[in-house]
Amino acid sequence: MSPARILIVTAVTAERDAVVAGLERNGPSTDTGTGTDTEVNADTELHADTELHADTEVIAAGAGPAAAAAGTATALTSAASAGAPFTLVVSAGIAGGFEQPPGTVVVASSIVAADLGADTSEGFASVADLGFGRAEHRPPPALARDVAEAAGAVYGPVLTVSTVTGTAARARELASRHPGAVAEAMEGFGVAEAAALHGVPALEMRTVSNSVGPRDRAAWRIPQALAALGTGCAAALPVLRAWEA
Ligand SMILES: O=C(O)c1cccc(C(=O)CC[C@H]2O[C@@H](n3cnc4c(=O)[nH]cnc43)[C@H](O)[C@@H]2O)c1
């Protein structure tokens, strides 16, 4: 059995560096007994002259679903063209939490485009409601659950938004439209769309830096969330590497 080749997509370099630091810190424990040591390849630029011998690559593709989709698609195409395609993609980073305190790790049971659609007099209609697209991707459930368990994560829907929620009213609206949602971030759906185009499964792992609700940037606990992100990704890596479609 050959280990999965994993592409981890973050938005910003601070997230990418936190993931790489976590994976490197926990490197020895990531050996799954296949005789292959984990090598982590941190790409500094999407088109960097990347050596694709490593089984795990971590990129910072930019903030928002469009940058995430473009960066993910580019990385997947480059790897496939080089004869070493990725077999799993993970959207990773910090997030706003619905009821989850800072530092909580969350793993998506579904990756939901929460503001892609149309406003109507009857309320929001998603692209799926409108009949011209999909509004949700579902990661392989057994894998996502195993990853959540390994990382001690809360498991539930993670929303992708293009605008960070900044009021209590908007937070209530999203929560009522997506019961059980555990977090919102800005890239997961874009990463999953690109992965789906390549026929590669996608997961999303987030760590909570702030609450979804009234904007209070001073209350964001970014160092705590970044530390949890490294630890969570390191705990997940053996499960990811052992996965076979
Ligand atoms: O200022 C910093 O040092 C810093 C370090 C790491 C990350 C950041 C970001 O601003 C990341 C933006 C990224 O975070 C996600 N995010 C976090 N909280 C929320 C939220 O409440 N709603 C939506 N997205 C959130 C998102 O994926 C952004 O791309 C800054």
UniProtKB/TrEMBL annotation:
Residues annotated as domain Nucleoside phosphorylase: 55-216
Residues making up the signal peptide according to the UniProt record: none
UniProt keyword Lyase, yes or no: no
Keyword Hydrolase: yes
InterPro entries with a match to the protein in the record: FL_hydrolase_MqnB (IPR019963), Nucleoside_phosphorylase_d (IPR000845), Nucleoside_phosphorylase_sf (IPR035994)
Catalytically driven reaction(s): futalosine + H2O = dehypoxanthine futalosine + hypoxanthine
Its EC number(s): 3.2.2.26
CDD domains in the record: futalosine_nucleosidase_MqnB
Keywords from the named record: Glycosidase, Hydrolase, Menaquinone biosynthesis
Pathway(s) it belongs to: Quinol/quinone metabolism; menaquinone biosynthesis
GO molecular function terms attached to this record: hydrolase activity, acting on glycosyl bonds
Family (UniProt): Belongs to the PNP/UDP phosphorylase family. Futalosine hydrolase subfamily.
Function text: Catalyzes the hydrolysis of futalosine (FL) to dehypoxanthine futalosine (DHFL) and hypoxanthine, a step in the biosynthesis of menaquinone (MK, vitamin K2).
Protein name listed in UniProt: Futalosine hydrolase
This protein's encoding gene: mqnB
